[in-house]
Amino acid sequence: MFEGRTLGYGLARSLFVFPFLALALLLIVLSGAHRSLSLDLLLSSYAVPSEGEPLRFCRSRRGSFPLHILLSGLLLFDQIPHPRLAIPPLSSFTRRDDIFVAYSVHHSAVTNSSCSAGSSTAEPPKDELLGGLMSVAFDGASCLSRHQSAWYRRKPSNHTPSPYLIRRLRRYEALHKKCGPNTKLYRKAVEQLVSGTSTAAAECNYVVWVPSDGLGNRIISIASAFLYALLNDKVLLLHRTDDMGDLFCEPFPETSWVLPSDFPVRYSWVLEKDHGYGNLLKNKLLSSDMDTANASLPAFLYLHLVHSNDEFDKMFYCEEGQQLLRKFSWLLLRSNQYFAPAFFLVPEFETELSLLFPEKTAVFHHLGTYLFHPSNTVWGYITRYYEAYLANAKSRLGIQIRLFRRAHFDSHSDYIIDCALTKRLLPNVNLTDTALPTITGAKPRSVLVTSLRSGYFEKLRSMYYEHATTTGEVISVHQPSHEEEQHSEKLNHNMKAFAEIYLLSLSDALITSPFSTFGYVAQGLGGLRPWLLVRPDDHDLCLHSTSMEPCFHFPPSYDCKARKKVDIGSVAPYLRHCEDFPHGVRLFD
């Protein structure tokens, strides 16, 4: 009789447990978890332990998984016997156990763990907030890459953002939310602009970025413009053209950085003539010592910071110029340069920049990581390609090839391959014994080639297909696309370009072409010091850069203090000439 009652009691509890679990799974789907985790992965995230092992709940690297829903149900059935699963009571787990990923409603507490298939040990927790760069105010579904990107990087960044930078970013986000598009203060500022009174004291001040040239140029100039806005308590807005429509997620919570389409000013050459800062200085219609309170000033200024600007435009980089520009509520800025290094030469910014960036070679790394998250569409390109070709590789080498003038293909491709071989980034091949054995079951080493043309990829792939390596390793070579020509005016072209930049940034080592902003962005996002395809001497085929910062190709040559032309690469110990373009300067530590 006792056995019958026990059996009936267990059966009754089982009949109650399973409907609850089914309800929990339904709640998970309704909560949005299905957007980042398939049902088979969700179910496989519960791993039945071997005898004597603790119960582990695993986390998919693709996104957060609300296992607390399931666990809250299991807590109700603590100590329930199960005929097949040896589940220990949940009360036996301590807070240090890797049980589940806990996200509060406001994402205020995050505890991550990951179990690899077939492994009894958990992977180290991933820092999804990237050292505090990311705000906790975002939801996961609107931008999958924001929280998932950390799971695609094998190693955490060695470059920790300063606590001061994190505080300033949170302060900027509050300012952008208060003054951003469709707010009362934004509409008031636009009314002042239209009426011609925008030089009056205003609560909100703006920098409007205007695009120029290709995607790499746009990204490095946006990062520079954001730093300028951050240093001057201005709000950055992007004039986003159709060819940039679905590239990036919004970087600031609960607001937008996209300039509304009804903004009353549009870029044209007329702006440079009538509102250009350099042109007004040249014609003595504007000066740093003028009485702006009683002067007749334009409602806004246009900053021409492209590579072809003149010395008057470059007065932007002088301290007295900054003081004058601060009196204008609206600035339109057009650039194709990484002009952030120039701010380190402005005395009034010196203390602030040293607090923001104690590690000067990580300026773009932190700004780029914070600002440029692939949209869900682009993230789909990235993750599908990564999982198909790169995820199981033992190591990943990225090779970025960009030509700015004609080169003999065979000699140039041989040069690139020789760089990889002599620097031991790839193994040599045996040209005499084609039957050398390979290491059975070993993971391959993957090479990702990005180029407008397919010839470099095909030559490298054929080399490792037709010949065995001297180490016995297997080399897989991949190229996502070859567009033949650059078409920065097309959205689809730019989406593929950003996907390839991001895939390059996931490499363990990187070879890049000189002068290429495409490569600069990849190395900066990845926190990588690249091997530059530059011959430093007769012995070395390529050069390992001592900085991961982009090069400011055309910096000012005027010393604002000394009032004379100088070698800008020698005025500060942290500014040196670029190895790949000696005319330019780059930040070093």
Automatic annotation (TrEMBL):
Role, per record: May be involved in cell wall biosynthesis.
Gene Ontology process terms (BP): cell wall biogenesis; cell wall organization; xyloglucan biosynthetic process
Family designation: Belongs to the glycosyltransferase 37 family.
Subcellular location: Golgi apparatus, Golgi stack membrane
Record keywords, A-Z: Cell wall biogenesis/degradation, Glycoprotein, Glycosyltransferase, Golgi apparatus, Transferase
Keyword Transferase in annotation: yes
Taxonomy, superkingdom: Eukaryota
Membrane topology term: Single-pass type II membrane protein
Any one GO cellular component localisation term in the record: Golgi cisterna membrane
The protein, known as: Fucosyltransferase
Enzyme class at the top of the EC tree: transferase
Lineage of the species this protein comes from: Eukaryota, Viridiplantae, Streptophyta, Embryophyta, Tracheophyta
